[in-house]
Amino acid sequence: MSEPLVLAVDGGNSKTDLALVRADGSLVAFVRGSLSSPHRLGVDGCLNVLTGLLDEACSQAGLDRTDGPVAEIAELLLAGLDFPAEEEIFRDLIDRRGWAARTVVGNDTFALLRVGTERGWGVAVVCGAGINCVGVAPDGRHARFAALGPITGDWGGGFDVGLAALSAAARSEDGRGPLTTLEREVPAHFDLSKPLELAEALHLKKIPMHRLAELSPIVLAQAADDLVSAGIVDRLAAEVVAFARAALTRLELTQQPVEVILGGGVLRSGNARLLAGIEAGLHELGSEITVHVSTSSPIVGATLLALDELGAGPAAQERLRRELGEAVKSYDQKQRSRSRSRSLDTST
């Protein structure tokens, strides 16, 4: 009899990863697609993305979805599932599709926490296109945040950093603010010469607003020599600390040896100023708080949680980390190679 399968999804504001894995940790299929956040696409749009990815994974694995549930456990962790009512609705919709014998849904921050620590508890802050945080206490209590943007007090993530960069560039150009290298670098990213040209292109919808998230690497790079960029980076560090501080305080963990796991593209960039600011802020809160940047993809964490549901042991977990980690790394390398090829084709 073949090993039962688990289905795992890490769905965010910029991409979605889906994996099919056997109970022994061996990888059956790994696929990646576009963003799937229900906040961005709506529930129907999200389900369309996930259905397409599942069909692709089943084709890759030689599975026929008409034969019944694909997996024993489906662990679907998505940005944009922030309230229990949303999770319940989404779980019911997945159950009706019969993808798995049992379905678990939740926010994608749980995937980061699981992949970043074996303790089963701690705090995770994800900062990619957006920002969010989750805390889990040793006794199982959770600290969560709505993470709906400005209406719930949020600032941070690639989009907010990019918007702050454009704002600073515009104020530098017209004299309302201090001079900054962002005045040149921000429009140049879009092959424009002035911030006002970029503002006009955004206003006329010639460039979609979500592309402002592409500017965060520029801000991080400029922060070493540009005071305005440094100020944006410092603000982001303070926001990460504020999230983690709130979670740690609510769970009464500030005086315990606790891990804070950082993930998402912005925090995984390795920017020295950003990470130093986060570490300094959290060490002020508690001397036994340690900060780690996760080097593993959150889809690994989502799949580990699915294997946990099956009671898989350390050998299966280690195999999963190795095989799925290598698959994600190979995919990323191929994507970077394609991007370089396209850049060369454009330049010639």
Task: Record keyword descriptors for this entry.
globular, 5-stranded mixed sheet, alpha/beta, 50% helix, 348 residues
Overall description:
With 348 residues, the chain is of the alpha/beta class. It has a domain at 5-112 and 296-347: 2-Layer Sandwich (Nucleotidyltransferase, domain 5), CATH 3.30.420.40. Helices cover 50% and strands 18% of the residues. A five-stranded mixed β-sheet has the order 3-2-1-4-5, sandwiched between helices. Strand 7 and strand 8 form a beta hairpin.
In summary, what is this structure?
The chain is of the alpha/beta class.
Secondary structure topology:
Elements lengths: L4 E7 L4 E7 L4 E7 L4 H24 L9 E8 L5 H14 L2 E7 L2 H8 L5 E6 L3 E6 L5 E3 L12 H18 L7 H8 L5 H9 L12 H7 L4 H24 L7 E6 L8 H14 L3 E5 L4 H13 L3 H34 L1
Parallel strand pairs: 1-4, 4-5, 6-9, 9-10
Antiparallel strand pairs: 1-2, 2-3, 6-7, 7-8
